[in-house]
Structure formats: structure tokens, C-alpha cells
Design brief:
mainly beta, 1 helix, Porin
Amino acid sequence: MCLTKSFVLLFVLSLFIFSEQAHSGVLVEPYLGYQFGSGDRNNNDYSYNSPQLGGRFGYQFLGFMGGLDYSMSSFDLETTNTVTNATSKTDYSQNQLGLFAGYNLPIMLRAWATYFISAKLEDDIAPITEYSGGGYALGVGFTGLPFISLNVEYRSMSYDEQETSGVTSAVSPSLDFSEVFFSVSLPLDL
């Protein structure tokens, strides 16, 4: 009888010691990268590039991941009029909040998609104008290095509302940007 209890206890203990974890938990992933963006509207071509700081916070389980993505940057938006060829630069700050879902592939790659529910673009010229909109992103990351992931994302943002001096109006046609974003991240599974 005592031998049977000892065997059961030893068996249960060995399950805890030698079994593989399910790898689930809270995902905290800060990232730092560089973005290259461009767009056009009403005979104007836009271009910018700048560092971008952000992070993903969510949950991952058995390779699947999902949660929130927040990023912010500041850049000089270069505007070129396609008719007169005149150029100008304006300082802008940008922040984006999105929902992401993805999967960690077993071949040291991961892929995700983000839907940005809020995107803000604000200039520094008085009166300050803030553009609002949303967009999406598709990204892949290489996780073959210890603790870090090397990532590339394609982002498409559309700003269709502006606010100047407390007055909100629709932007027609919308201000659309395409971005390529290269980043290094630290995906932590807590």
C-alpha cells in the first residue's frame, strides 16, 4: 500500500519535472525601428522617414499571439507640389494604437497583422492641425537570434478627419500613407 502511494507520488512529480511547458503567458514586446513613408493627395507628394518607438502588449498561447500595439514617432514631412515642383518641410508627430493577432512559426519566423483603430498625425504650425484615421499593417519577424526579433512591416494609414482650433471636419480626399518599417524587438513571455 505504501509502495503504491510512493509510486503515484513519484509519477506525478515526474510529470511536473519532465513535461514541456505550454508556453503561454503575457506578451510584452518593446520595439525600436526606422520607418520610411510616402503618400500623395491634391497634386502633392509626401515623403518622410524617422525612428519609431513602440510596443506590443498581449497574450500568447501555443504559438498564437494577440493584443494591443502602440507606436509613436516624430518626423519632417516633405511636401512636393507636382505642378510647381515647390518643396516644403513640416514637423509632425504621429501615434498609432492598434489590435494585433499573429502566430509564432516553428521555423524561427513569426507573422502578424495589425488593425489600427486610432492613428493621429499632428503638425507644429499654429494653429495646430491634428489628422485622425486608421489603417492596417502586415509584419514578419526573424527570431533566430537570442532574445530579439528582427522585423519588417508594411503599414497603410488613412487620415480622413482633421481638427484645427477645435473645429473638426472631414478630409476629402483622405490623406493616405504607405510605410515600410524595419525594427528590432524584445518579445518577452512573462
